[in-house]
Every structure is written in C-alpha cells, then in structure tokens.
Amino acid sequence: ALKLNYDEQVKAAGDNQALLKALQEKYNKDVIDARKRISEEYLKLERETINKLSSSRINLMKDGFEKELAASRLSFAEKISSLEDQLRTEEKLTSAQRKRIKETIINIRKEQAKEEEQLILQYEIKANERQLQLIQMRLETIRTGTTEELELKIRAIELQKQIELAEAEKTMIDKQTIIDKYNKQIADATFNFQISQLNKESQQKLLQVDKDMQIEIKALRDQLEQKQITSEQFARQREGIENKYNIRRAENALALAQEELKRVKELGADTLSAEQKLTEAQIALDEAKTANFIANREKEKAAQEALNDKLFGLGSELNTTLTAFGNANFEDEIGR
Questions:
Q1: How many angstroms separate the CA atoms of 233 and 51, rounded?
Q2: Half-sphere exposure of 186 toward its Cβ, with a 13 Å CA cutoff?
Q3: 238 or 33: which carries more pLDDT confidence?
Q4: Rounded distance, CA 230 to CA 311, Å?
Q5: 303 falls in which pLDDT band (50, 70, 90)?
Q6: What span, in angstroms and rounded, lies between the C-alpha atoms of 288 and 247?
Q7: Is the pLDDT of residue 10 over 80?
Q8: What is the 3-state secondary structure (H, E, C) of the chain?
Q9: Mean pLDDT of the chain
Q10: Angle, to 10 degrees, between the axis of helix 95-139 and the axis of helix 147-171?
Q11: What's the average model confidence in pLDDT over 51-65?
Q12: How many CB atoms lie within 10 A of CB 142?
C-alpha cells in the first residue's frame, strides 16, 4: 500500500525535483515506521504467546513452592520485558526518560529478588514445620533416656531455631538472641541426658552394692543356722556389714555429685544447686563413716568388757581352786 501510494505521488509530481525528493524522504520514513510497527507487533505477539505458554505450564504444576516461584518469576519477567521493549522501540524517549526506565527495571529486579527470598524462607519454614511434626511423633514412640531420644530432641530444637530465624528475617528481630536461646536448650538437653545416664550408672552400682550386702548377710545367717555363731555375734556382725555398705552407698552418691558438678562447670551454668548436692553427699559420707567408727568402738568396748569378765571369771576360779588346795593341805597337816 505504501509503495502504490508512493508511485502515484511520484507520477503526479512529474519533473518537480524538490517534490520528488520530499516524497522519497517521506516514503523512506514511512517504510521504516511500518517496519518498526511490524517488529513491535511481532515482539508483542511473541511475548504474549510465550507468556501464555508459560502460564499454562504453571497452571499444570502441583500447588506448592515450585509453582509459586515460577508464577512470581513470570510476573516479573513480563514487567521487565515490557520496559525493555519500550527502550528498544521508542526512539523519541529522552535521555532522562531512558534513565528512569532503566532504574525502574533495576528496582523491579530488586523487588523480584526480595519476593523470591521471602518465598524461599516461607517454604523453608513450612518444610521445617512438617519435619518437626514428624520428629515429635517419633519422640512419642521411642524409649526415653536413649541416645536416639537425645538426637531427636536436639534435631527438633535445631528445626525450631531455623523456623524462628526464618521468621526473624521478615521482622528483623535480633538473630543472636534466638541463636543463644536455642543453643542453651541444646546444652540443657545434652546435660540432662548425661545426668540421666549418670543416675542410671549410679543406680546399677547401688543395686550391686545391695546384692553384695545380701550375699554377705546370707552367709552370716547360714553360720547362725549352723550354730557356728551366736545370735549376739550375728547381730553385731550384721551391723558391721550394713555399716560397710552404707559407706559404699555414700561414696557412690558423692562420686555422682562430683561428676554432676563437673558437667555443670563445663557448660558454664550456675553451679549452686550442684555444689549443694556435693556438700550433702559429703556430709552423708562423713556421717556413714562416723556411724561405722562409733559402732566399731562400741564393739571393741563390748569385746574388752567380755574379755575382762572372762578374765575376772578365770581369776575367781583360780582363786577358788587355790583356796580349796590350801584348805586341803591344812587338813592334811592337822591329820598328821
């Protein structure tokens, strides 16, 4: 249509060179403008078909993070493409206008990065929340006091920390406070597990102490039943056995208190409660040793008194014998 119109105008201009030149320039400009329009329309149609195809593919995606991210990226890509086409096709834009459009593109890219970061954070929060629920379900089924329980508890605390840190990204809350809080929870969980293990070990030792004591008392009772010892001897020896094992129990409790205080110091926690336990355990041991010492002294005293009574009895018997012997000799002398 342009060429046909141009040819008609050239024919009508005849030999008017000035008019012919003007017609040529106008024709060239019209051709360039027409090509630009065609190019713009092509680019617009191409962009629309690509966007429609991308939208259809996104619509077929399963709901979730990937779909949300793809939809967000497509939205920003459309905005940026539109501005880039404007820069490429609109020649009449001033330098200031081009600068503003370029700055707008930069800002859109920043906005895209921020939105994608928020999407990723939100996805991480949801993923961690789901994993946390699974761990909590597992904790309900496993045996308490095991290494597996401790590992799951620490994993749950780590997930809670990650969730809260992700939330802090959106609210700009101080992250170090969150990190310190959950690090302390992990330290406390580890400490409680270690103390639980120590208590189990201590309980096993106490059971062994009781077992050993019962074995000795049974052997002593067998001697009583076989009349190898008297009831008084049985009672005294049994008391000695019980005192000996009371000391072993107190020593076990002291060792446990010492180890607990050591663990508390390693954690850098408050040691007041552990120190009180240690003091009480030391006092209990001292009391057990004192009771044993007093019992031994009383036994020694009773033994000495029994020995003295026996010696006194022997002395009396000897004196009676000597007296009887002396009287017999006296009677013999008189008889002579």
A1: 103
A2: 16
A3: 238
A4: 20
A5: low
A6: 5
A7: no
A8: CHHHHHHHHHHHHCCCHHHHHHHHHHHHHHHHHHHHHHHHHHHHHHHHHHHHHHHHHHHHCCCCHHHHHHHHHHHHHHHHHHHHHHHHHCCCCCHHHHHHHHHHHHHHHHHHHHHHHHHHHHHHHHHHHHHHHHHHHHHCCCCCCCHHHHHHHHHHHHHHHHHHHHHHHHHCCCHHHHHHHHHHHHHHHHHHHHHHHHHHHHHHHHHHHHHHHHHHHHHHHHHHHCCCCCHHHHHHHHHHHHHHHHHHHHHHHHHHHHHHHHHHHHHCCCCHHHHHHHHHHHHHHHHHHHHHHHHHHHHHHHHHHHHHHHHHHHHHHHHHHHHHHHHHHHHHHHHC
A9: 80
A10: 160
A11: 73
A12: 11
pLDDT of residue 103: 94
C-beta of residue 160 within 8 angstroms of C-beta of residue 132: yes
Rounded Cα distance, 24 and 20, in Å: 6
Residues in the chain: 336
Distance CA(135)–CA(240), nearest Å, equals: 53
Is the separation of the CB atoms in 164 and 199 below 8 Å? no
The two structure tokens encoding residue 64: 């979730």
Q: Which two tokens stand for residue 233?
A: 């001897």
Other Cβ atoms closer than 10 A to 221: 13
Handedness of CA 214, 216, 217, 218 (dihedral sign): positive
